[in-house]
Amino acid sequence: MYALGFIVFVVFYLAIAEKDTRAFHLGLFCACASMFMFGSPLTALGDVIRTSDTGSLSFPLCFMNFVVSGMACIKGEKQKQNTELHIL
Questions:
Q1: pLDDT band for position 47 (50/70/90)?
Q2: 4 or 23, greater pLDDT
Q3: By the 8 A CB rule, do 60 and 41 touch?
Q4: Quick one: 34 exposed, middle or buried, by C-beta within 10 A (0-12, 13-18, 19+)?
């Protein structure tokens, strides 16, 4: 229920904010969300080290974090070279 309320708040805020402010705040929100998503498997890292068992890690989550971070690196490198990037 809190997540739905937060999403509604963000949508309404982005609807009334100015264009430059909206882009900055949306980018900041997405960056924070990405950090939480990439960091979520690290919460189980203590169990993995303590028990020497990776059964507590979610493979699909770890794999997709690897894929997404790889895509972000490729996109950043392409933007640094000022070339167009067509993924799909």
A1: confident
A2: 4
A3: no
A4: middle
User: DSSP assignment of 32-73, as one string?
Assistant: HHHHHHHHGGGGGHHHHHHH--GGGS-HHHHHHHHHHHHHHH
Q: What's the whole-model pTM score?
A: 0.51
CA separation for the pair 35, 15 (Å, rounded)? 25
CA distance 75 to 81: 10
Task: Identify the sign of the CA torsion 39, 41, 44, 49.
Answer: negative
In the structure encoding, which two tokens stand for residue 25, read together?
């705040």
CA-CA distance, 61 to 70, in Å (whole number)? 14
Token pair, residue 71, equals: 């895509």
Q: How many residues does the chain have?
A: 88
For the cut 60, the answer to whether the pLDDT of residue 85 exceeds it is no
